[in-house]
Every structure is written in structure tokens, then in C-alpha cells.
């Protein structure tokens, strides 16, 4: 008799993970639902939630209802401490270094498909699944069929040896199809809006976030490329490369070109000067043996278009990248993901 495979589904309380759970049950898997609590519930009660975020008390309630509807075991995992250590501390550290961090990228590798995945395996699960939009084909990570919803950019941190035990049922569907499936089978969150912001910043108030941790953010000068001081900034963490709103009337449109942590100043420049032809990336994760030179397309932020590039791989694990066209807003601390068509080749952190 064929043994039924056990799958631990990361059930967030949203429509995507709910449909992933339903699809796996339909395919004959023995499913257990795992729901993460990354920050204390009191944060969502004390703060004004500006945008939909994950892991809130209402998400926990929705996840419980979904698990109950499909009669699957439901486990709440309180991982607040390790999330604070691995993700929130990283977020703070990068900001204080004048960089722009990407906590969701590292949460996927270290938390969802790190800590939670290990808990599920220790519980006897054969696989772990989530509602992310991406595909795993022959042990490699690929974009979802729905390119508008594709989340391979954020999943490119997951080490290749984990892909064999990871299932992404939604990669074959569009978001509209997923919502229709949810509505058809009576999942109550079929029209629930997607999470948009960081779970530990539900009010999107970065200044209050630092103040609550006793971190004082000092303002400083805003200067032009030729060194002229044209105003003051509120603190380096509140700005990112390519940002246009800087609160200064300069008589022309100026964008943040660079942040200097040592001098605590921001360099601003006209739009043309914020385009770059090259970048250096510290390799973080690779799905194949990289040759010393290769061509690819690269995405340097989730919502940015991919750009063709040439890559030289250095002995120290850095990638020297030359864009085929000048590229806007290359930002230290952000993530670069390299593709060969729909296949993810590797990912890394932009250094400069």
C-alpha cells in the first residue's frame, strides 16, 4: 500500500496559503497547518495599522478557521525571539550602516524555510509547502506562470538542497485563478487583500521603531554632487537610493544618489546621475556551479524590470556586474537576483 506523504503547509491566514493547503489535500497529501507568530500581538493592538501586514491577530483567527474548515491539524509557532534576533536585528544593523535592507528575502531562508521548516521535519513531515508564486522544476527554482505575481525574487535565498522537499502549488496558477478556486470551495478569505508591508512595522513608522529601541537617529546635510549644502535630512535610514521626495525645494528634481555613513550626509543629483552601468554583488546563494563569466538578466528590486547583464565571478565570491543599459537606483543592501529566462541562477546582496 502506498504511503501517504505528509506535508506541513505554512498557513498565513491569507488566500494564497489557504488555496495551497486545499490543493495539496485534493492531491492526496496528509496535511498539517503551521502558522507563524513573528512579533507579539500587542504590537498590532498598540499601533495604527496603515497597510495589510502578515502575522497579525486577525490572520491567526483566519488561519484557524481555514484549518478547521479542512479538518487539518493546526499548530501556532511562537518564534518571536528568533525572528527578532535573525530579522529585526539585521534590519536595524543594515539601516545603521547606511544601507537599505530586504528583511523578507532573509525571512524566507532563515525563518519560513529555516526554523519553521525544521520544526515541520522534526514533526515527521516529508515536505513543506507555501502559497508563494514560483515553481520548482527538476530541483531548480523558476518564476511562476503568473509573471505579475511571481515571487521567485524573494525565494532566491532558499538553499538549493531544500528545494527537493519544498512544494509550491500556486506556481501553476494566476492570482485570479487562485481567488476563483478559493471562492468555489468556500474559503472565507477568497477576497482578502495581500500583505504589503513589514510585519514588525505595521504602522510604517520607522522613526518610532528606532526610538522604541533607544536608537537615536541624527539628521545631517544634504549635498549636491559638487559638494554644495542645500538642506538637511532627517536621518539616513529614512532615505533610499533613487528617492525623490527629500523635503527640499531645490529648483529642480533631485534624487538620492548616495548615503555617506561616516559624514552622515546624503548626496542628491538630477535623474540622469542616478543611473549606473555597473554594480558589485556579494554572492549569497547559487543554484548551479557558476562559470567565471556568464550572461543573464538581473532584477535589483521586486518591482523593477529585469535588465540584461554580463557577470564576472571573482575568487572572493563577489560578482562584478555590467548592465546592458544604465540602470536606475542601484542600492547597497538590496538584493540582486539573476535569471536565465524563467530559471533563477543565483542571488546576492548589492555591495556598491
UniProtKB/TrEMBL annotation:
<keyword id="KW-0067">ATP-binding</keyword>
<keyword id="KW-0547">Nucleotide-binding</keyword>
<keyword id="KW-0808">Transferase</keyword>
<dbReference type="InterPro" id="IPR046885">
    <property type="entry name" value="MnmA-like_C"/>
</dbReference>
<feature type="domain" description="tRNA-specific 2-thiouridylase MnmA-like central">
    <location>
        <begin position="215"/>
        <end position="269"/>
    </location>
</feature>
<dbReference type="InterPro" id="IPR023382">
    <property type="entry name" value="MnmA-like_central_sf"/>
</dbReference>
<feature type="active site" description="Cysteine persulfide intermediate">
    <location>
        <position position="199"/>
    </location>
</feature>
<feature type="binding site">
    <location>
        <position position="131"/>
    </location>
    <ligand>
        <name>ATP</name>
    </ligand>
</feature>
<feature type="site" description="Interaction with tRNA">
    <location>
        <position position="132"/>
    </location>
</feature>
<feature type="region of interest" description="Interaction with tRNA">
    <location>
        <begin position="149"/>
        <end position="151"/>
    </location>
</feature>
<feature type="binding site">
    <location>
        <position position="36"/>
    </location>
    <ligand>
        <name>ATP</name>
    </ligand>
</feature>
<dbReference type="GO" id="GO:0000049">
    <property type="term" value="F:tRNA binding"/>
</dbReference>
<feature type="domain" description="tRNA-specific 2-thiouridylase MnmA-like C-terminal">
    <location>
        <begin position="279"/>
        <end position="350"/>
    </location>
</feature>
<dbReference type="InterPro" id="IPR046884">
    <property type="entry name" value="MnmA-like_central"/>
</dbReference>
<comment type="function">
    <text>Catalyzes the 2-thiolation of uridine at the wobble position (U34) of tRNA, leading to the formation of s(2)U34.</text>
</comment>
<feature type="binding site">
    <location>
        <begin position="10"/>
        <end position="17"/>
    </location>
    <ligand>
        <name>ATP</name>
    </ligand>
</feature>
<dbReference type="GO" id="GO:0002143">
    <property type="term" value="P:tRNA wobble position uridine thiolation"/>
</dbReference>
<dbReference type="GO" id="GO:0005737">
    <property type="term" value="C:cytoplasm"/>
</dbReference>
<dbReference type="GO" id="GO:0103016">
    <property type="term" value="F:tRNA-uridine 2-sulfurtransferase activity"/>
</dbReference>
<dbReference type="InterPro" id="IPR014729">
    <property type="entry name" value="Rossmann-like_a/b/a_fold"/>
</dbReference>
<keyword id="KW-0694">RNA-binding</keyword>
<dbReference type="Pfam" id="PF20258">
    <property type="entry name" value="tRNA_Me_trans_C"/>
</dbReference>
<dbReference type="Pfam" id="PF03054">
    <property type="entry name" value="tRNA_Me_trans"/>
</dbReference>
<dbReference type="InterPro" id="IPR004506">
    <property type="entry name" value="MnmA-like"/>
</dbReference>
<dbReference type="GO" id="GO:0005524">
    <property type="term" value="F:ATP binding"/>
</dbReference>
<comment type="similarity">
    <text>Belongs to the MnmA/TRMU family.</text>
</comment>
<protein>
    <recommendedName>
        <fullName>tRNA-specific 2-thiouridylase MnmA</fullName>
        <ecNumber>2.8.1.13</ecNumber>
    </recommendedName>
</protein>
<keyword id="KW-0963">Cytoplasm</keyword>
<keyword id="KW-1015">Disulfide bond</keyword>
<feature type="active site" description="Nucleophile">
    <location>
        <position position="107"/>
    </location>
</feature>
<feature type="site" description="Interaction with tRNA">
    <location>
        <position position="334"/>
    </location>
</feature>
<dbReference type="Pfam" id="PF20259">
    <property type="entry name" value="tRNA_Me_trans_M"/>
</dbReference>
<keyword id="KW-0820">tRNA-binding</keyword>
<keyword id="KW-0819">tRNA processing</keyword>
Amino acid at each position: 500500500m502506498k504511503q501517504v506523504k505528509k506535508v506541513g503547509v505554512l498557513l498565513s491566514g491569507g488566500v494564497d496559503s489557504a488555496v495551497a493547503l486545499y490543493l495539496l489535500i485534493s492531491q492526496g497529501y496528509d496535511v498539517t497547518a503551521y502558522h507563524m507568530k513573528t512579533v507579539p500581538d500587542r504590537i498590532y493592538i498598540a499601533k495604527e495599522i496603515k497597510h495589510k501586514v502578515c502575522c497579525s491577530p486577525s490572520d491567526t483567527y483566519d488561519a484557524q478557521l481555514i484549518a478547521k474548515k479542512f479538518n487539518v491539524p493546526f499548530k501556532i509557532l511562537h518564534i518571536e525571539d528568533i525572528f527578532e534576533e535573525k530579522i529585526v536585528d539585521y534590519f536595524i544593523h543594515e539601516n545603521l550602516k547606511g544601507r537599505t535592507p530586504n528583511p523578507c528575502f532573509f525571512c524566507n531562508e532563515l525563518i519560513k524555510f529555516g526554523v519553521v521548516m525544521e520544526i515541520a521535519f522534526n514533526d515527521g513531515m516529508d515536505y513543506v509547502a507555501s502559497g508563494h508564486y514560483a515553481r520548482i522544476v527538476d530541483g531548480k527554482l523558476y518564476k511562476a506562470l503568473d509573471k505579475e505575481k511571481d515571487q521567485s525574487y524573494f525565494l532566491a535565498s532558499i538553499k538549493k538542497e531544500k528545494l527537493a522537499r519544498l512544494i509550491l502549488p500556486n506556481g501553476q496558477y494566476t492570482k485570479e485563478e487562485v481567488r476563483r478556486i478559493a471562492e468555489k470551495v468556500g474559503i472565507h478569505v477568497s477576497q482578502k487583500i495581500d500583505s504589503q508591508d513589514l510585519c514588525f512595522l505595521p504602522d510604517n513608522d520607522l522613526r518610532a521603531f528606532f526610538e522604541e529601541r533607544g536608537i537615536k537617529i541624527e539628521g545631517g546635510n544634504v549635498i549636491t554632487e559638487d559638494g554644495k549644502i542645500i538642506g538637511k535630512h532627517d536621518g539616513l535610514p529614512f532615505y533610499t537610493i533613487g528617492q525623490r521626495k527629500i523635503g527640499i525645494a531645490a529648483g529642480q528634481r533631485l534624487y538620492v544618489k548616495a548615503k555617506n555613513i561616516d559624514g552622515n550626509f546624503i548626496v542628491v543629483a538630477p535623474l540622469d546621475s542616478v543611473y549606473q552601468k555597473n554594480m558589485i554583488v556579494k554572492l549569497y546563494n547559487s543554484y548551479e556551479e557558476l562559470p567565471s563569466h556568464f550572461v543573464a538578466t538581473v532584477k535589483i528590486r521586486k518591482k523593477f524590470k529585469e535588465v540584461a547583464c554580463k557577470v564576472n565571478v571573482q575568487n572572493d565570491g563577489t560578482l562584478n556586474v555590467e548592465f546592458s543599459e544604465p540602470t536606475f537606483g542601484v542600492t547597497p543592501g538590496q538584493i540582486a537576483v539573476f535569471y536565465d529566462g524563467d530559471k533563477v541562477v543565483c542571488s546576492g546582496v548589492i555591495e556598491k
